Amino acid sequence: MSLALALGRRGLGRTWPNPSVGCVIVRDGRIVGRGVTAPGGRPHAEPQALAQAGKAARGATAYVSLEPCAHHGQTPPCADALVAAGITRVVAPLTDGDPRVNGAGFARLRGAGVEVVTGLCTDQAAEDHAGFFLRVGQGRPMVTLKLAQTLDGRIATATGESQWITGPEARAQVHLMRATHDAVLVGGGTARADDPSLNVRGLGAMPQPVRLVASRKLDLPTDSVLARTARDIPVWLLHGPDAPGDRREAWRVLGAELVDCGLKGRHIDMGEALRALGDRGLTRVFCEGGGDLAASLLSAGLVDRLVVFSAGMALGAEGRPALGALGVEALADAPRFNLREQRRVGADVMQVWTAPA
């Protein structure tokens, strides 16, 4: 089961809108087949593992990191494929929360005489599939918010200098995190100030995440890196209803996809924006700021995981804060998270926090 889960984690960020599932087929104590959901979500893990196993699948056990699907989509149900191959036992940690499955896969297997074992490694599986479960359950992707800051919570000097507060090891870790998410999100201010590429670098050839920018009025430079590469790597722009028509058209011509969002006060309603991204199939979004966007996500309770890189320097009160205004007047109203992990990354410290269940 641990191997099936590890295989599934290899596909995180590449299989949306489907979950990244791992499958291992074992017969007589020997692995005879393994598979992981392919980029783009198809084919699923089970038929790939069965193809590798061939005739050795008959009488074998399949370890699958999520309940096998039971519905006809672009491919036949995986539960049926397991039955047809002669699998006699299926071990899976969790029920698939997709309403089209939701226990039907297990029922189909049991109905065909296949032994089904559940409940193994459930915590790890729930963490691995958190983005998929949020999309099918709440209609939005999981959000990881990353902050790279000084000891006193600053992300730039008063003049805006920010490259680089953290060291090369921390930046390499961020690229690994980008690679496990479907999309990378920044606010319009960050896009204007840093002219980022928002892609994954240093890991060889691989599928790239969607690049997202939240900009109410689309006041973004059309000669930026994102603009020049929008036809090579997808760029989706979250904008408000008052974004000027000429700016919309300019970005359409460049190849960007526009996502029209409502407003909450003077800013984009990020709850609505995330639901729009969920409708488009995204399951995991990696947000890299800036401060106002980070604050809006935190205020709305939309941050599921918080990753903080802290560098051993201080910039003082005149430095630019990592977070914009949260409007917190009482400690009881402040967003709180549970510490999941803390370790040294080069000269910096990385902390991973999770939202309370």
Return the CATH class of the largest domain: Alpha Beta
Low-confidence parts: none
Query: SSE order in H/E notation?
Result: HEEHEHEHEHHEEHEHEHEHEEEHEHEEEE
Strand order of the largest sheet: 11-10-9-8-14-6-15-18-17
Please give a structural write-up.
The protein starts with a helix and ends with a strand. It folds into 2 domains: 1-128, Cytidine Deaminase, domain 2 (3-Layer(aba) Sandwich), CATH 3.40.140; 139-354, Dihydrofolate Reductase, subunit A, CATH 3.40.430.10. The mean pLDDT is 95. It has 357 residues and is an alpha/beta fold. α3 runs parallel beside α4. Helices cover 28% and strands 24% of the residues. α4 (104-111) links the parallel β4 (89-91) and β5 (115-117). The strands form 4 sheets. Strands 11-10-9-8-14-6-15-18-17 form a 9-stranded mixed sheet, with helices on both faces. It has a 5-stranded mixed sheet with strand order 2-1-3-4-5.
Concise synopsis of the structure shown:
With 357 residues, the chain is α/β, with parallel strands linked by helices.
